[in-house]
Write a structure and sequence with these properties.
This protein is α+β, with helices and mostly antiparallel strands and about 425 residues long. It contains ten helices and four strands; from the N terminus they run αααββαααααββαα. The protein has a four-stranded antiparallel sheet with strand order 1-2-3-4, with no helix packed on it. The mean pLDDT is about 90.
Length: about 425
């Protein structure tokens, strides 16, 4: 375990060196619907930040215009008006700055969430692909054992017909054979379900993925040396940790915003315009003359003193939200530590387990060959052959499963 080198962002290329997996992850990155949804949430957070930034500037700017013609007492008159008004609340207590801080933190959290969806997507595609290769390997092992067991059925049948043994040996051989054939069907079901899962991860309806998956291939071998960085660095890089921390920061700013509601709000307003009315001997040409020009400017403040209890309660409410998010953050860090330790331990222990199963499979194959030869020579009964054949099928299946488990556990380390 190299804890001094950080993992590559494209870790699967170095870990498995499988062009098919590279192609699948590239397709998922382009088409996965959950990833697209996460990207749109980032866009929403960016627009929320833009709105918060805009609140620093004059909050209301209005341009008005009126043209009216009316008749009264046999007289027809015209009225024209054009004006511009603006209202601005000064950010004396930093309430708008707190909103910007909150929106910035929410944007950071949405980016971390996007990274989390991306990492999870890569890991899910890789693990599903590895499980497909594992199931293909198990299927090949099961079919190999079916052929071995067919030969045993033929041997027992020949010995029975020659009068050298009873029908019990034939029945036992047939029982083992048909159980193994039934297991083949189970594996074929699992294989198709895994392919359907992969199709959904690629943003496609369940369909034939033969063109992408290509021919059946062995489970990708992995190196026992893994570059992952120090455990604390792993935790620091996790998107769920970053997301929880930024949401905590966002809520902290919301507490500050709630506090500013306790103080008076100061603002400025102003307007400028012009009016022309033919009823007072003006016409449309006078609309922009000095005589029809008007302007105003005013300053003031508002203070919600009668709702002071409600405002203070809101401060306590926002602080309670903050305390809750703080505990959630601590729980996320603890869970992350457990995830990192569990995945690293599982990877290295599964490698040790793989070596043991490889040796067990080799010995089981030797035992099956020897028992079949001895049975043909009449040196052992068929119970010995049945036992060794069943053990061979089990050990070879366990070996294939563990080869896949090692690769899947490596994906969990990078996840």
């Amino acid at each position: 375990l190299d804890t001094g080198t950080p993992a590559s962002p494209e870790w699967w290329k170095g870990a498995f060196a499988d062009p098919v997996l590279d192609q699948l992850i590239e397709a998922a990155q382009e088409e996965n619907l959950s990833l697209r949804s996460a990207g749109l949430r980032v866009l929403q957070a960016r627009q929320q930040l833009a709105i918060a930034i805009g609140n620093q500037y004059p909050q209301q700017q209005t341009v008005t215009g009126t043209a009216e013609k009316f008749r009264e007492n046999d007289r027809t008159d015209e009225f024209y008006d054009f004006g511009f008004s603006v209202t601005w609340e000064a950010d004396v207590w930093g309430r708008f700055r707190r909103q910007i801080e909150s929106a910035e933190a929410q944007l950071d959290a949405s980016l971390a969430d996007y990274d989390g969806v991306l990492i999870t997507l890569f890991a899910d595609v890789a693990q599903t692909y590895l499980l497909i290769r594992t199931t293909e390997e198990r299927l090949a092992v099961a079919k190999y054992n079916v052929e071995l067991q067919r030969e045993s059925v033929a041997i027992t049948t020949a010995k029975f017909e020659a009068g050298d043994t009873s029908s019990l040996d034939v029945d036992q051989a047939q029982t083992l054979l048909f159980n193994t054939i039934a297991g083949v069907s189970d594996l074929e079901i699992s294989l198709q379900q895994l392919r359907n899962t992969l199709a959904v991860l690629l943003g496609r309806p369940p369909q034939d993925l033969s063109a992408l998956l290509g021919e059946t291939k062995p489970i990708p071998a992995v190196s026992p040396a893994v570059a992952v960085g120090m455990p604390q660095d792993l935790i620091r890089r996790r998107p769920d940790i970053r997301s929880a921390e930024r949401r905590l920061a966002s809520q902290s700013a919301q507490v500050g915003f709630a506090i500013t509601e306790l103080y008076p709000h100061f603002g400025l307003s102003g307007s400028i315009g012009t009016t022309a009315n033919t009823a007072i001997n003006e016409d449309a040409d006078d609309l922009f003359s000095d005589d029809t020009f008007r302007w105003s400017i005013a300053g003031g403040f508002s203070w919600d003193v009668l709702n002071y209890g409600r405002l203070r309660s809101n401060v306590r409410l926002q602080d309670a939200f903050f305390q809750q998010l703080l505990e959630d953050y601590r729980q996320t860090v603890l869970q992350a530590q457990a995830d990192v330790e569990n995945s690293i331990v599982a990877f290295f222990r599964s490698q040790e387990q793989l070596e043991a199963y490889r040796l067990a499979s080799n010995f089981a194959e030797r035992s099956a060959d020897i028992s079949r030869l001895q049975y043909q020579e009449g040196l052992v009964n068929f119970n010995t052959v049945i036992t060794t054949l069943a053990s061979l099928a089990t050990q070879q299946d366990l070996l294939a499963i563990t080869e896949g488990t090692v690769a899947v556990n490596l994906v969990d380390v990078y996840r």
